Amino acid sequence: MPTRNYTQETWGDNMKDRTPKFPGRVKLKPVAGQENIYDMTRADDPDDTGTPFNTRTMLQDSTGRFLRLPVSNPFVDDALRHMPDRIEPIGTVKTSPALSLGDAWLPCDGSQVTFAEYPTLCQILRNTVGEVTWDGITVGTAPNFQEMSRVVKFNGKFYVAGCYYTKNSGSAQYVYTLSVAASEQATGPYTVVHTETVSVSESLPSSGAHSGGAPVQMVASDDLLVAVFDTRGDYQFLNTISSISKIQVLSSKDGSAWTRKTASYTGWQSNIADWRPNIKGLATDGTYWAFPTARYIFYTDDPQNATEWTAKLIFQYPFACVSRLSYVNGQWLAVVGSSASNQKLKAAVWASTVPIGSWTSKGLVGATKSLNQNATSVVYYSGRYWVAVDGGTGVMSSSNLTDWVSEGTAGIHSIDNVNSALLATERLLALGGTNIKLEITSDPSLGWNIAALPAGAYAHDLSADGDTVLASGGGLISYHDYSTDVRLLPTISLSDDTTTFIKAKNELDVFEAQAGGD
């Protein structure tokens, strides 16, 4: 691109119009062999051809990148609309003799602002009004749930699945109590609406022991609510268990009448290299219900009646799914890494239009690491895909699932294979781990806020109702309504005849809200 030197003599020397002697005159030439088809060329005999119309003169790619235009194939109009907010982003401070700079600016007078109205600004501001305190509620009967799913909204109510177990003294028999609790509000109180009891006999390995109830996941489509319990506890290899693993499936079409099915697997060949099935990241597209384990996707299209879930080998050795399964923007997504201790392969995001279809690798996301690389599910937030991976990689994002960039390691020190979760809402991104730390952000480029959960709570699963974020783990649901959070604007006064303002909203957002009559 040629260098353009700007001097006072060139000021006002703008783009030039075409100045024809014969405006609108064209020349038509018949196309040979095509009746009534002509080639048309200008015949206006211009005195000045004017400035050519192309991307070089209208909107260069570098300008679009500089302005961070959030649209593909942007027009000049897009650049003009986003330019003020790129030059003066939210958080910009400036002083003026004016009493107001418009609805996008607030005076720096120490006033309180909320996340609900100013989410990005509140992420920047350091001054808080008190500490962010998460509340918690116990769920289940006595004893309380030892394992619990995320909170799921279905038919206007909120549901959570959980369980606990007891062991018959002197035997290898375990009795699992599988329950579903419901509430009118996401934050409770929750009442157990259905309970099933299942007895399982196991020949326990000498080094193994249950750490709690059966792992459980819950998910809903428009017309079906499903909870899946793994009543083989937390053992890892099939060869430590006396018989093939089975799952318990509770389902309901209305939240009142429930069906339980005991399901086994078909198509799964156990061997020492394969982890035994466990329910990691149960997801649905409304037709299929599926979860991954090692190189397999376990699925059914009829969880209410199926006594067998099909195990389909998707990933060939040494690859294995290391994340939860997710269904985002019409695609099934999983993070796949190496399951061989002698391999050092980076994790990659794989995608398929159906869980049992052809899976393809999209792009690398993980740090180089061998066995036990773990990841959260993939979510979509603020126009980008997000995932958290262990091995020092932390949080990654991509606009296309292929080109991934690091967004910082945040404060989660351990991304666990099963019990780490990433959640995206309309205005918040949340990351939970096996410890009691939980991280929240409205704009990851500005940093993450660490929140401590109540004593005994864990962020094994995350869900949300609007700006209320919920963390499930053990027998507790902890929660916080981020729309109630407040920050303090800075207090700045340079003189009696000026006012200092801070950019609180994007000019474009304010304009579009006003133009739309909001």
Describe the structure in your own words.
This protein has five helices and 39 strands. With 518 residues, it is mainly β. The strands form ten sheets. The chain has an eight-stranded mixed beta sheet, with no helix packed on it. Strand 16 and strand 17 (259-266) form a beta hairpin. Helix 2 (61-67) packs parallel to helix 3. The chain starts with 18 loop residues before the first strand and ends with a helix.
List keywords for this structure.
518 residues, mainly beta, eight-stranded mixed β-sheet, 5 helices, 39 strands
Provide a short characterization of the protein structure.
The chain is mainly beta. Helix content is 7%, strand content 37%.
End-to-end gap:
44 Å
Number of helical stretches of at least 4 residues: 5
Structural class: mainly beta
Number of strands: 39
- Major sheet summary line: 8 strands, mixed
Helix proportion: under 10%
